[in-house]
Amino acid sequence: MLTIAEASERILAEIRQLGVESVALRQALGRVCAEEIAATVTMPPWSNSSMDGYAVRSADITSALRGERVKLRVVATIAAGEFAPRPLKRGEAMRIMTGAPVPEGADSIIRKEHTDEGSKKVEIRDATDVWKNIRQAGEDYQRGDVLARRGTPVRPALIGVLASTGISKLKVFRRPRVALISSGNELVNIDGFDEVIAQRRIVSSNSYTLDALTRVAGGVPVDLGIAADTKASLKKKLESARDCDLILTSAGVSVGDLDHTRTVFAALGGKLKFWKVKMRPGAPLAFGMLNGVPWLGVSGNPVSAMVSFELFVRPVLRKMQGYAALFRRTVTVTVEEDVKIGAKLTHFLRANVTRNQDGTLVTRLTGLQSSGALTSMAKANALLIVPETTPYVAKGSQLKALMLDQSLDETSAFSL
């Protein structure tokens, strides 16, 4: 049985980045750049005002620095998108709007609140803005500057930067197509809910959670439906996954009489790399290659499937898409209750992490930790990591937690 780190290393060693495609800038959000992008222009192209006020020469308002009031002639008004009619001369001021080009000769923008807002003449009442409030030409970037490198995630700010330099299309790594297969005679989709009401079946929640997790991770789910507990049914599902970049199955990878996945996988020419990891929930984890396509088989228990996805499937999808940061962030938390584990396995317990007023992070479990209790996973924003060497954790102890909440950021690695 492999450790979590060993299993992750073996899986990722087999994963390659996908091909490249060109997409419109508006469709690039959440993708990863597959090329280096350089600025085609300088930004801003001219020095401009960072606020509404008056463009002046510092030499004309030196007395205002001593507390005296200075009056200047207002000779023009410059709106955003317009240019000054001429250079600014001694004793003059020009009204200027935010974003408007600064006239030649001006070196300060006095905000209008520090003046009497005159239209013919303006009285400068406060000179604290001397030499301020001018955004210099090229201060954001210069023509030729590299704005994005291969492997850069496309976030909203980068969309704006690329738009400002005229990039309407960019090359990104392709999104992975993920074949999703659940198995079990007891399962139905929501459209078969009458069977659930009649207490004959249960909804295949994995079909929905794994679909959602795949989308959040940037993949494109390809729902191949529910396989019956027969070799023939599972064989048909696996064969229909040949055009996908990853095969993800849930259930059927344990040792039960009807757990056929590994047997059918081998019969189709699949090469099993390993199965079983020293963790709970999610110990039944299979990994292999089927005709060049990676396959990950997770437990059918809903929480086990989700935990395995976070630890192993999500990093695979991110590597395929060109991300450098593959894993979610881990943080140190103080446990606010006693915690006990049974088996000598690394445990991932559903927890809610909050921040105290002093900035420290604390956590409590979200409820029942059974691998079938999906509601406690829905309440969790983290997985509390309890090492196999720590069967009892006293209240007040510190542990690591794997954050599931995007708002707490991500880094390039996690450690146990």
Describe this structure as you would to a colleague.
With 416 residues, this protein is α/β, with parallel strands linked by helices. It has four domains: 4-18 and 175-320, MoaB/Mog-like domain (Molybdenum Cofactor Biosythetic Enzyme, Chain A, 3-Layer(aba) Sandwich); 24-43 and 142-173, Molybdopterin biosynthesis moea protein, domain 2 (Alpha-Beta Complex); 48-135, Molybdopterin biosynthesis moeA protein, domain 3 (Beta Complex), CATH 2.170.190; 330-408, Beta Barrel (Beta-clip). 18% of the residues lie in helices and 30% in strands. The protein contains eight helices and 27 strands. It has a six-stranded mixed β-sheet, sandwiched between helices. The chain has a five-stranded mixed β-sheet with strand order 7-4-6-5-8, with no helix packed on it. It has a five-stranded mixed barrel with strand order 21-24-23-25-27. Strand 19 and strand 20 form a beta hairpin. Helix 1 (4-13) crosses helix 7 and helix 5 crosses helix 6 (261-267). It is elongated and about 90 Å long. Residues 409-415 have low confidence and may be disordered.
